[in-house]
Amino acid sequence: METVCLRFDHGTPASVARQAVREALRTWDVVDDDGDTLTVATELMQNVTQHTGNGGQLTLALRREAGRDAVIVECADADPHRPEPLARDLQRPGGRGLMIVAALARSWGTRAAVWAGHTGKVVWAELVFAASPRTRTRETELGQAG
Asked: Where does the record place the Histidine kinase/HSP90-like ATPase domain (predicted)?
């Protein structure tokens, strides 16, 4: 599994995470035409910067499956309180981030974790894309070489 990690401080702009996601997807030849990975990474990072007192760590991981690429986006922080999706309220600004994550991801969740020496959490989401033609070609060539 290939991974990319980005530590960020409270107040770090989401553009930093989006750039790391773009570079990882490009390096891995993952085609995300709709920008779902960018959206999920931004939402998870913004939850940390808006709702906790310190920074966190964004981790992207790639798992190649038969004909598909699974991208796992994780965001760790030192706050042990697990986020809960809020009830839909059209009068409230914001509060829709986890609903967006749930709509875009194949699956998502939270788990307890130690981060920065504190008991905190990881919020994760898994997105799945069709393998790019170049990736399928490489896998076929590797299979024929063996």
From this structure: 16-108
CA distance 79 to 27: 32
Q: In what order do the strands lie in the sheet with 107-115?
A: 2-8, 56-65, 68-77, 118-130, 107-115
If we measure between CA atoms, which residue out of 109, 3, 126 comes closest to residue 71? 126
Q: Please say whether the dihedral angle defined by the alpha carbons of residues 21, 23, 27 and 32, taken in this order, is positive or negative.
A: positive
Alpha-carbon Rg for the chain in angstroms: 16
Q: What is the DSSP string of the chain?
A: -EEEEEEE-TT--HHHHHHHHHHHHHHHT---TT-HHHHHHHHHHHHHHHHSSS-EEEEEEEEEETTEEEEEEEEEES--PPP-PPPP-TTSSS--HHHHHHHHSSEEEEEEEEETTEEEEEEEEEEEEEPPHHHHHHHHHHHHH-
User: What topology does CATH give the domain 2-145?
Assistant: Heat Shock Protein 90 (3.30.565)
- The pTM of the full predicted model, rounded to 2 decimals, is 0.84
